[in-house]
Write a structure and sequence with these properties.
about 85% helix; globular; mainly alpha; MetI-like fold; 11 helices
Length: about 260
């Protein structure tokens, strides 16, 4: 319990300090584009009502979840195949290096041509950006499977789905989760960007509408809400990661104690 409270204190300490600095630095601000933090916080409950949360925040989160899940499944599946076979990796590597160098926001107009301007376009934009860290980390994780463990599994006749599940994916899971963590932050950014193009709801759309109508305090509340969502999603991801990779963190802790 004490350790959990200590971790919570460390996690909240820096954000609280930054908010305090912002409060003091903006307290006597008369700049319309840089309102005092107290003004922004005062506007927050009036802007983000239950109706707006259902109409704008929930659709954004659903698009993020769909695009992120699509990227996770595609990235792990393709990464496992590419990492397991040397010839496949040799053929795919030049194409992967070319595609990963293309910034996902640049693909928005192209995706709009094929997927229209609805939710499908936004989901595909999120997936197109999130897939790369998952895919590349999966490839490296699969390539790094201990050859001794691989030979032992072969000797005991562990093949097919059992080998994939219990050896390959389990050994690569720390790196897969590292890629998923990177993809989450990319997904939030692309969620906002995709909603700035021909959208009628969503967080990105709402923040832009506030900016265009010169509702600057309301715009800042949207930015703060995005930061809070990013923080909450990061905490939830860490909880899932610690549960799934409990064996890995336990092994690392035991290794540190034995030194």
């Amino acid at each position: 319990m004490r350790a959990a409270l200590l971790r919570l204190g460390f996690a909240l300490g820096l954000p609280a300090l930054l908010l305090a600095v912002w409060w003091v630095a903006s307290d006597d601000s008369t700049d319309v584009y840089w309102p005092p933090l107290r003004t922004v916080l005062g506007a927050f409950p009036d802007v983000w009502t239950g109706e707006r949360l259902r109409g704008d925040v929930l659709p954004s989160l659903l698009r993020l979840a769909a695009g992120y899940a699509l990227a996770a499944v595609a990235g792990v599946a393709l990464g496992t195949v590419i990492g397991s076979f040397r010839r496949v990796r040799a053929v795919c590597e030049p194409v992967l290096e070319f595609l990963r160098a293309v910034p996902p926001p640049v693909l928005v107009p192209v995706i709009m041509l094929f997927a229209g301007i609805g939710d499908a376009m936004k989901i595909l934009v999120i997936a197109a950006g999130c897939v790369w860290p998952v895919l590349l980390n999966t490839v490296e994780g699969v390539r790094a499977v201990d050859p001794v463990l691989a030979e032992t599994a072969r000797s005991y006749g562990i093949t097919g789905p059992a080998r994939l599940r219990d050896l390959v994916l389990r050994s690569a899971s720390p790196q897969i989760f590292a890629g998923l963590r990177q993809a989450l932050s990319i997904g939030i950014i692309l969620m906002v960007i995709s909603e700035m193009f021909a959208a009628s709801n969503g967080l990105g759309f709402t923040v832009v509408q506030f900016q265009r109508s010169f509702a600057i305090p309301d715009m800042w509340t949207g930015i703060l809400l995005l930061g809070l969502l990013g923080f909450v999603l990061s905490v939830l991801f860490q909880l899932v990661e610690r549960r799934v990779l409990g064996w890995y963190h336990g092994l690392r802790a035991a290794t540190r104690r034995s030194r």
